[in-house]
Design brief:
By secondary structure, this protein is of the alpha/beta class. The protein is built from twelve helices and twelve strands. The strands form two sheets. It has a seven-stranded parallel sheet. The protein has a five-stranded parallel sheet with strand order 2-1-3-4-5. Helix 1 packs parallel to helix 12, helix 5 crosses helix 7 and helix 8 runs parallel beside helix 9. Bound molecules: 2-keto-D-gluconic acid (8YV). 2-keto-D-gluconic acid binds next to loops.
């Protein structure tokens, strides 16, 4: 019997449930197993009509160039800064991502990081585990109540964070170039440094990419000030990591909670030993419920594309 399944190139180790679903319905090739791209491309490249990747893994033009019949890229994640959208557009290749299904999980991560920072939870746990409790009192934290949460990027996830921060009785402010969002009551700043000055917690949730590269630079950190905390649940590229390390070393800001880094999975050594820094390994969307919803949406996009040529959540 001839195998009529469509050939799909998968970019590395994706979510296990998604992989199982893909393997059941498609003939899978895995980028992680290809050592010689040129010879693999000559033998198999023409067969591939779909690529499945993630917002973190992205794609490589060198490989895409060898897929003349590629029609669609389905990505696991809302951010697609690691994918060359213009290149796909020029070739008429469709692209989907997984928006909305992860808003709650990422917002919960932002709240968890804020709480962890301000109540010194990681530090407190290290204190208990090290057997230090009997030897003295743990230093006091600060509360979120009545503090200002300054959100950089009031998109869908930003708004979800804002609602949760408001439930903690925080004042909500946000940065947007130009006009305020119509119908949004939160305090608007069209100057990022002014927001940083006003904020006790500066929460970064803008898309990554060239437009936001090092948006949070030394001057923004200086504006945030010695009492201010930085929380990044967006992309490592948005924060100038060297400037952040310098600001922390100089006591220019109070602390930072980081879920994303410029060179993941590598974290600057200087951050590892700082007690006022909370570090997480890019777990923003990392709940069982959300990752399942993301996996299902990636698969549903792919299926629908091969059924009728459309995507459920197209980027383009
Ligand atoms: C990752 C994310 O995609 O949605 C995004 O943009 O950064 C995450 O959800 C996910 O961790 C897959 O690796």
């Amino acid at each position: 019997m001839t195998d009529t399944r469509v050939d799909v190139l998968v970019w590395g180790a994706l979510n296990p449930s998604l992989m199982a679903n893909l393997e059941q319905h498609y003939r899978i090739h895995n980028r992680a197993e290809i050592t010689d791209v040129a010879s693999w491309g000559r033998e198999h490249g023409y067969k591939i009509s779909a690529v499945v990747t993630s917002g973190v893994l992205g794609t490589e033009i060198e490989v895409l160039e060898r897929l003349p019949n590629l029609k669609v890229v389905c990505s696991f994640g809302v951010g697609y800064d690691a994918i060359d959208v213009a290149y796909l557009g020029d070739r008429g290749i469709a692209l989907s991502n997984t928006p909305d299904v992860l808003n709650n999980a990422v917002a919960e991560t932002a709240m968890a990081l804020m709480l962890c920072l301000t109540r010194r939870i990681s530090e407190a746990e290290r204190f208990v585990r090290a057997g230090q409790w009997p030897t003295g009192k743990f230093p006091l934290g600060r509360q979120l109540t009545a503090k200002t949460c300054g959100i950089v990027g009031l998109g869908k996830i930003g708004k979800t964070i804002a609602r949760r921060a408001a439930a903690f009785d925080m004042n909500i402010a946000y940065y947007r170039r130009g006009q305020a969002y119509p119908g949004v009551d939160y305090t608007h700043y069209d100057d990022l440094k002014a927001l940083a000055r006003a904020a006790d917690y500066l929460v970064v949730i803008v898309p990554g990419g060239a437009d936001t590269q090092h948006l949070i630079d030394a001057s923004v950190l200086q504006a945030l000030g010695a009492e201010g905390y930085l929380v990044n649940v967006a992309r490592g590229s948005v924060v100038d990591e060297q400037a952040l390390v310098a600001a922390l070393q100089a006591g220019q800001i109070a602390g930072a909670a980081l879920d994303v880094f410029e060179n993941e999975p590598h974290v600057p050594q200087a951050l590892m030993t700082m007690d006022n820094v909370v570090l997480a390994p890019h777990i923003g969307s990392g709940t069982q419920e959300t990752r399942q919803a993301m996996a299902d949406l990636v698969f549903a996009n792919l299926r629908q594309f091969f059924e009728d040529g459309t995507l459920i959540t197209p980027v383009q």
